[in-house]
Each structure stands twice: as structure tokens, then as C-alpha cells.
Design a protein that fits this description.
Number of helices: 21
Mean pLDDT: 89
Helix content: 25-40%
Shape: globular
Strand order of the largest sheet: 18-15-12-9-8-21-20-19
Structural class: alpha/beta
Distance between the termini: 42 Å
Number of strands: 21
Largest sheet: 8 strands, parallel
Length: about 725
């Protein structure tokens, strides 16, 4: 192995990848060098590579502890604690609230960091370390408490700092994550809706679906159809612009929600606003936006909606808050701390406002949105939902957004700036994909004890019954594409998947929420097994469930995994009615997106659909007519052991238009379409709830859920 490859291995940069099981491709040397430069390595000359290699190998050989250790509750301590040099003294310090305290956190290993001398703290000998004794596990204590490995048993759940001092003078400070063995378990089998919130407009919406609509949708689905959850698109803060990027998967910040989703009339200060005439005028203009979308075929215009809502919110911000409301706001600000302040300053500055004057307005908007998100979850639970609202965590953020341009957890940014995340070429995309998202630097994440991830998860779990992790494989590795290179010329960079998974399970446990991983596409060997072992549900889409190890035919229902959310389609795939009719192929042909002759695409797609219809007919399910076939496809899902079954809401009314068409930008109105019926007529939430077709499908699914259970021996989360 040459010097560059050895250096890449030490930094977790892969020099080969496998687009298929029997194919191995080499990563271009220029890509390896470019990716290493993003990790702070000097690859300019052979001499600099050798020098950095020698330094990295010396550090690996002499470090006392890795930067991060994971202790799964009920298991033995991390092996690294048992292999410290004899005579090493250790001290473990619990961290208040599970977030880093002090400057010594996450320092590089194997160096003298000026830690207090061991004898000053009575640190126990490393040889006293033994297997943990059974002990009750509680949340981290406040204020921080000292803990030693000598006979104290298992430390409390949480994120701690461990200090070590070897007899030869070497010292180290590392992060110790103590996590539950598994994420919270799913309830008995349940079903729910999958929906893009902006696309569901009620008769009270101001031009796009809002959090009031989400609460109403949950009440209807829970009370009328016994649904256990509603899964929505990411509701993260967007990057303001003209026009704003409509994709919910390229946000400004994943840490804070977007106030464009607010229901203005549900803000408590609305009732006390003295300028009723101005509010009424804005509401009328909001109604006009709604009518243009629902009655005149206009696209959802996020910028126009926000312009009206911002004007209304300016009026409400000027209304004095009650003492109780003011106290709640101050408590929220204190709890969110510097992260919220920095985000608010960014929002004000990006809008061309004076941050000193306007930052509090943007902090207030986050507070209002957080409250309405929590209210939607309460409404879902009060409607009898076992899970409630399933929120979606995007895989990354906009390169110029609040998260990427700030450095909220240290003096240096934790995003790499000269690369983007994407996917290599595979059977589904011959060119690969560039998502335009900067990746987290794994070294800087570890140096902060994963503070950015911890804060992100804690924030989203505040109002979630479950969290869907988009591209969950990114916990383990991401495809980095150097700036200016095509997607095919990227490289996989490894992350500490064990640490990131432990934090995910820990925060899910604290919130009592489920975790669902979107694990579609190319998945590294062992990843699905690691996720399942920790209680993270996978995602199974009917059209992709094949006997890939055999004849490639549709996978029999009883062979599907139990630990998953099963659905027929997703927001990135054709609605089921379009798939059955083949109209999605015609759409891609019209837009020039096909890479093969249209006749061949049509024939292969029709054959694929026919194979599934044959499976349904063999099971005695009705496929005569589009509505019957859609019901039977969802009925098939209920024959699998899947714990959660998701109904794509547009399928309930026969909508044929995809919400997102991958591979397009301005050729197709991605993320801007309202839910429509089979003829393409947009529907209000009220009309959807009254739709005979929607009620028939959801009634059939509820009936199947009520009469069928998972097969004996099926393992839940």
C-alpha cells in the first residue's frame, strides 16, 4: 500500500468502492488527495504526505484513548478501558444536561493537556476496571458528578468525559457515551399516513399546508381511521431567497424549524392584536393565495406565503405578552442558549436587518413554531395515535445556510467546505448524484464530543413521536465529491457509526420516540444489522422488495422484515396510480430524462408492474381497476410482518403527479404541488377527508390492521 493509501486508511477515506457486489472500482488518486485536504491533511507533495503519515501513525500508536467511547447499557465497558497501560489512572465526569462543559472536552489523544495530576483526585488504577455490575440506569445527574470505574458499576445514561493519565505521563480526555441497549420499541402493528405538509391545504391555509392543518389531519386520521402516525417532510428552516429553494431536504438549519409553517390565527397574541383591519387584510390575501392554488392551478408559492405571514407576525410581535407567556419565552430562550442566538442573528443578517435590533424577532418565531409543533403532536396523541407525528431529518444542510456558515460548537466550522455529499453511480443512477450538501467533518464532530449532533437530535425530538433519518447510512459513511468533480469521482468517508448511533438511541430514549431509518439504495454491509440490533426500524418500499439473492421476483409477504416501515411508494417515486398506468414513464420521456429508448422503458416498467399484479391475483386480491389495485397493493403490505405500514396520502385520492422528480430542477415543479384527485384537481383537506376513495382505502387498511398481526416469532424493535 502506498503512502497516500495508508494515510487515507488512517483517516477513514476509502480508496475503492463497490457499486455492485461483484464489482470493485478504484477511487482516483486526485479525489483521495482532495478529500484528505478537507480533513486537514497536507497532500501537496510526496514529502508532505510522508510527513503527515508518520505523524498520524505515531498518534495512532501512542494515544491512550480514542476521542469517543461507547458503552451500551447492560454490556461490558468499552474494550479500550480494559487495555490501558497498567497503572493508568482514570476519572469519569458526568456532564450536566448531556452537553459539553469546559474547554478540555474532545482534545486530541496521547498528549499532555495539563490535566490535574492523578494523585490530586485519587484516581483509581486501571487494573481495578471490571465488568459492570447490574445497576439501575438513570438520566445524568445535575450538577455534574464524578464517577470512577473502580467498583461503581455502570455509569448513568448520558454523555460524559473520561480523563486518563498513564504512568509515563501521557494524558487524554475522551467522550464516553452511555446509551440504552435499544431505542424505544414500536407499538403493536399500526398504520399511518405519509404526506408532504405544504401540499395539504385546508380552507384556513394561507397558500400552503401549515401546522394547524397537520393537527387537523392527525385528528381525522386518528379518530376516523385509527391511524397510529402521520409522517411529514422535513420542517427545517429554509434559506430565504428569491425564490427560496423549495426542497425541504436542503435547509438552512436542521436544528430549528421554519416559521412559514405557522398557523397565524393560532398564535395567542392574535386575539389581542389591536390592528384587526390589517390582520384581516392579510388573511384575505392569504385566502387568495389558497384559491389560486386550489382553483386556478397555481403552484404553491412559499415566498408569497411567507411575505404575508411575516407581515402578520410583525403585528403580533408588537402585542405585549402576558406574564405567563413572557416567562415561557424567556425559559425557552435560556434552554436553547447560544445556538438559538446565533441562528437568530444569521436570520436577521441574511434578511438585511440589524441583528442587534431584529434578532429577538427571529428567536420569537422559533419559539412560536416550536409551540405549534408540540401542539400538533399533542393533537395526534389525543386522537388516539400510538406514535403521533413522525418528523423527517434531512441528510444535510444548504452550504450557505445558518448551520453551515456558523461555528456554534467551537472556533472552527464542523462542515467541510470544498466537497459535497452525494451518491456514486449505481444500478438506479448511472451518473451518480451530487446533492449539493456539505458534510460534517468526522474529526471535528469527535473533537466536540458530537455536540452538534446531540443538540440537533434533542431539538427535533422535542416534538416528535418518531424520527425518520433520511439516508440513515450517513451515520456510517458518506460519499464526498470534491468541488468541481463529477459525482462518479467521489470517495466514501467513514464516520464513527457506533458513536452516532448511540447518541441517536440515547436521545430517542429520553424522548420516548421511535427511530426509522431510510435505508434504501446502496447500503454498506452490516449497516442494516447494526441498526436493527439497536432498535432502529428500516424502510421497505414494495417495488424494491425482491428476491435479490434468487430470481429477482417480488419478495413473498412472509419474507419481509418485521423491523420496518413498509409502504408502496415515497415522495421520490411515482404515485401508485401513475405506476399502474405507466404515466410516470411518459412524464420522464417528455422531459428528456430517459437514458434508454422509451419503448424499452415502457416495456420493462409494464412487465415489472404486471409481475406484482400477478402476485396479488395469486393471493386472491382484486386487481380489476385502478382503485382496487391500489387497495390490494396496500393490502399486500398488511400480509407482511412490517410493524408500521405507511399510506402515501396522494394514493388515497388517485393523484398521479409525483411531489419530486429526481434529476430535475426547473423542468418540473418539485415540492410545489397540492394533493390532487385522479383528474388532477387540487383538493382541500376537508375535501380529502370527505373523499369516498380516500375513506375506502384507509378503511380497508384499518380493517386489515385490526384483523392481522405479525407472524409468530416476528421480532419488533
Amino acid at each position: 500500500m502506498d503512502d497516500l493509501a495508508r494515510l487515507a486508511a488512517l483517516y477513514g477515506v476509502a480508496t475503492t468502492y463497490q457499486p455492485a457486489e461483484d464489482v470493485t472500482l478504484r477511487v482516483p488518486e486526485a479525489t483521495v488527495a482532495a478529500v484528505l485536504r478537507q480533513l486537514g491533511v497536507n497532500t501537496d507533495t510526496p514529502e508532505s504526505v510522508r510527513a503527515d503519515l508518520a505523524a498520524a501513525e505515531h498518534d495512532a500508536a501512542h494515544r491512550l484513548l480514542p476521542r469517543v467511547l461507547v458503552w451500551w447499557a447492560g454490556s461490558r465497558p468499552p474494550v479500550e478501558l480494559g487495555t490501558l497501560p497498567p497503572g493508568t489512572r482514570t476519572l469519569l465526569e458526568a456532564e450536566e444536561g448531556g452537553l459539553p462543559q469546559g474547554e478540555g472536552h474532545g482534545l486530541p489523544q496521547g498528549e499532555d493537556h495539563g490535566l490535574p495530576r492523578a494523585e490530586d483526585h485519587g484516581l483509581p488504577q486501571a487494573e481495578d476496571h471490571g465488568p459492570p455490575q447490574a445497576a439501575g440506569r438513570t438520566a445524568p445527574q445535575e450538577p455534574p458528578v464524578a464517577w470512577s470505574a473502580a467498583g461503581a458499576g455502570e455509569p448513568p445514561l448520558g454523555v460524559h468525559r473520561i480523563h486518563a493519565q498513564a504512568p509515563d505521563g501521557r494524558t487524554a480526555t475522551a467522550t464516553l457515551i452511555v446509551a440504552p441497549d435499544r431505542a424505544p420499541a414500536a407499538p403493536e402493528r399500526t398504520h399511518g399516513l405519509l404526506v408532504q405538509l405544504y401540499s395539504v391545504l385546508s380552507e384556513r391555509s394561507w397558500g400552503m399546508g401549515d401546522l394547524g392543518d397537520l393537527a387537523e389531519l392527525a385528528r381525522w386520521a386518528g379518530r376516523v381511521h385509527g391511524a397510529g402516525f402521520v409522517q411529514v417532510n422535513p420542517l427545517h428552516a429554509a434559506v430565504p431567497g428569491t425564490p427560496t429553494d423549495p426542497s425541504p431536504y436542503r435547509p438552512s438549519s436542521r436544528r430549528f424549524p421554519d416559521p412559514v409553517h405557522l398557523r397565524i390565527e393560532d398564535v395567542p397574541e392574535y386575539a389581542d392584536c389591536p390592528d384587526r383591519a390589517a390582520l384581516a387584510e392579510l388573511a384575505d390575501r392569504g385566502a387568495q393565495l389558497r384559491r389560486e392554488v386550489l382553483e386556478k392551478g397555481a403552484l404553491i408559492d412559499r415566498d408569497a406565503v411567507w411575505s404575508l405571514k411575516q407581515a402578520a407576525l410583525e403585528l403580533l410581535y408588537a402585542v405585549p405578552r402576558s406574564p405567563e407567556r413572557e416567562a415561557a419565552y424567556r425559559e425557552f430562550r435560556a434552554a436553547q442558549g447560544e445556538e438559538l442566538d446565533r441562528h437568530a442573528v444569521w436570520c436577521a443578517g441574511h434578511a438585511g436587518e440589524d441583528p442587534k435590533v431584529r434578532a429577538d424577532f427571529h428567536r420569537w418565531l422559533v419559539w412560536l413554531t416550536d409551540a405549534q409543533l408540540a401542539a400538533a403532536q399533542r393533537a395526534a396523541k389525543e386522537a388516539g395515535m400510538a406514535v403521533g407525528i413522525v418528523h423527517d431529518l434531512a441528510v444535510g444542510v444548504h452550504p450557505e445556510g445558518s448551520d453551515a456558515t456558523g461555528a456554534p460548537f467551537g472556533a472552527v466550522p464542523h462542515y467541510a467546505r470544498g466537497v459535497c455529499v452525494g451518491a456514486p453511480p449505481d444500478a438506479f443512477n448511472a451518473r451518480g448524484q451530487d446533492w449539493g450538501l456539505p458534510p460534517w467533518r468526522p474529526d471535528r464532530l469527535a473533537a466536540t464530543g458530537y455536540a452538534p449532533l446531540r443538540a440537533l437530535l434533542r431539538g427535533v425530538f422535542r416534538y416528535a413521536g418518531a424520527l425518520r433519518i433520511d439516508h440513515v447510512m450517513g451515520l456510517f459513511r458518506l460519499w464526498w465529491i470534491p468541488e468541481g468533480a463529477p459525482p462518479a469521482e467521489g470517495a466514501y468517508v467513514s464516520y464513527d457509526g457506533e458513536a452516532m448511533l448511540a447518541l441517536l438511541v440515547l436521545e430517542a430514549h429520553r424522548a420516548g420516540a421511535l427511530v426509522i431509518g431510510e435505508d434504501l439504495g446502496t447500503v454498506q454491509p452490516g449497516v442494516r444489522q447494526a441498526l436493527a440490533r439497536r432498535g432502529v426500524l428500516g424502510t421497505s418500499v414494495l417495488w424494491f422488495e425482491r428476491d435479490w439473492g434468487g430470481d429477482g421476483e417480488p419478495l413473498e409477504a412472509e419474507r419481509w422484515r418485521a423491523d420496518c416501515l413498509a409502504t408502496v411508494t415515497t415522495h421520490d417515486l411515482p404515485p401508485t396510480a401513475a405506476k399502474l398506468a405507466g404515466s410516470h414513464v411518459e412524464l420522464r420521456d417528455r422531459l428528456g430524462l430517459l437514458t434508454r429508448p422509451a419503448e424499452r422503458e415502457r416495456a420493462e416498467d409494464a412487465a415489472d408492474t404486471a409481475r406484482w399484479l400477478d402476485v396479488l391475483e395469486d393471493l386472491g386480491l382484486d386487481t380489476k381497476g385502478e382503485e382496487a389495485a391500489v387497495r390490494s397493493l396496500y393490502g399486500f403490505l398488511l400480509r407482511t410482518p412490517a410493524r408500521l405500514v405507511g399510506v402515501w396520502l396522494p394514493d388515497a385520492v388517485g393523484d398521479r403527479r409525483p411531489q419530486n422528480l429526481p434529476g430535475t430542477w426547473d423542468q418540473y415543479p418539485n415540492w410545489r404541488l397540492p394533493v390532487a384527485d385522479a383528474e388532477g384537481r387540487p383538493l382541500t383537506l376537508e375535501a380529502l377527508a370527505a373523499s369516498p376513495r380516500a375513506n375506502a382505502l384507509l378503511g380497508a387498511v384499518r380493517g386489515a390492521v385490526g384483523t392481522r398481526t405479525a407472524p409468530p416469532g416476528a421480532r419488533g424493535v
